[in-house]
Amino acid sequence: MFGKFSTVLLCVSAALAQEVQLDAKLGPKQAVEIERLNATIASLAQIATENGGNRAFGLPGYNASVDFILKSIENFDDDHAFEVWTQSFVGLFNQITVHNLSISETESYVPQGLIYSPSTPVGGVTAELAIVPGDATPCNSEELLATGANVTGKILLIERGSCPDGTTFAGKVKTAKGAGAISAIIYNNQDAFISGGTLTAPNPDYIPAGLLQRSDGLSLRERVLAGEVLNVHYEQIQNIENRTTVNVFAETKAGNKENVIMLGAHLDSVSAGAGINDDGSGVSLILELLRTLDAKNVKNQVRFAWWGAEENGLLGSKHYTETLPAEDVDNLLAYLNFDMVGRGYYGVFDGDGSTFNLTGPPGSDVIEGIFTKWFHAQGINTTAAAMTGGSDYYHFMEDLDKPIGGLHTGTAFEQDPCYHQACDDFDNVNVTQLYINTQAAQHTLLKLIERGPEIIPKGPSNLTSTVLLGKKVGVEWTHLIEDRHHSGCAVAL
Ligand SMILES: [Zn+2]
């Protein structure tokens, strides 16, 4: 392992020597250190281990992660070059404490959770399993009833699929309830492992609902089709309540305050695991950029953000962008996002829309160009990452109309088989890749600090000229599920 490791490092440092020359104008640059990147993700993994296996919003592992970031900056920032603060906000917390599905004492399944599903009564419900006959894919109860299905008082097994409201889960849950079902079990419409999903917000039109893997769903459906009557016991207890959490910020005291370059990574994990690639890797990357910055001599101000409650709906970055005073919005030059940068492909956000036709605000193309040029100069192929809105950049581009960019190494099985699972631990990150991505990010940050205002068009906060992705009905805010055709983070509604 170490052999492979050092070969890559050698190749990168040779290329870097050349890069330093090319960018001599960029001023002093302190080297990114792989040991520090490694130490950060090790600390985050340790925090999860000590706090019930996760660092999720509303739970002790998140608070410990906040303390860790604050302490790391304090330990490092001897000469007080940074202003550091936290911003608290209230988000809707959820925790599934009981979730099981069984057909008999010997046949049971482990359903995956749907965030914001209502609970069943304590002790669960027992009812006949109903299916959708034929090849119908109903998105409302009329369509479902038109198939001849009788689901009243039953538990409906239904395939996941896109509905006109822009969702792939919520539309199915509403359909089931509208037709009289007492619970809905949605099975995936792809063979890929499904680790969870979200209903975006609680809604009286929902019934208790959970997810099954495609193979399990199809085999149960076959049995019902063959005439078997399956009496299913289903129980889900989900606590949903408001909890207060925080974003963490650090910004340089030096630099032009009218051209702020902002970098962000989310500090929370899902509740299923430690979240070391997602997003301990991005947390580690921006912390290392802070440490390697010549903070007292930056030409333009740099602000770092560690976001809270990203996994529950981009809540931290949403709160920040919603409450940012207009003057501060005007002063913001660009936002760079680093969510999952530890294994997979070298994904650069497709700012110019050339691959996915989802173009970022003007200037996003410039940022993409800086990143890709750096990677290509190292002989590293890049993959365009679609800006589908699956991470904290969303509100910066959609609501503030700010140029955005960043890196994202992919959520599909091929890129991260432990995505949103318990195995997203320390060993799930390829620290060499994290190291290379951090160097790419450092290069881009330094370029923006030096030349950002010349190369990035800056618009006022009230820009209305750019319609970015169009107004979506369902905001694609979390990347629980990989959409293989669109790389990057994708929809999970
Ligand atoms: Zn993430």
Beta-strand portion reads 15-25%
Low-confidence stretches: 1-24, 462-493
**Bulk shape:** elongated
CATH topology of the largest domain: Aminopeptidase
CATH architecture of the largest domain: 3-Layer(aba) Sandwich
What is the structural class?
alpha/beta
> Count of helices?
12
What is the terminal separation in angstroms? 39 Å
The secondary-structure element order is HHHEEEEHEHEEEHEEHEHHEEHEHEH
What is the domain tally? 2
What about the largest sheet?
A: 13 strands, mixed
- Ligands and ions found: zinc ion
Enzyme class: hydrolase
Domain PA: 125-220
Organism: Tetrapyrgos nigripes
Family: Belongs to the peptidase M28 family. M28B subfamily.
Overview of the molecule:
Residues 125-220 form the PA domain. This is Peptide hydrolase. Its cofactor is Zn(2+). Keywords: Hydrolase, Metal-binding, Protease, Signal, Zinc. Belongs to the peptidase M28 family. M28B subfamily. The structure is a single chain. By secondary structure, the protein is α/β, with parallel strands linked by helices. The chain folds into two domains: 14-81 and 253-455, Zn peptidases (Aminopeptidase, 3-Layer(aba) Sandwich); 95-240, Glucose Oxidase, domain 1 (3-Layer(bba) Sandwich). 32% of the residues lie in helices and 22% in strands. It is built from twelve helices and 15 strands. Strands 1, 2, 3, 4, 5, 6, 7, 8, 9, 10, 11, 12 and 15 form a 13-stranded mixed beta sheet that branches. α10 (364-377) links the parallel β13 and β14. α2 (34-50) packs antiparallel against α3 (60-76) and α7 (276-292) packs across α12 (431-455). The radius of gyration is 23 Å and the shape is elongated. Zinc ion (ZN) binds at residues 266, 278-279, 310, 339-340, 391.
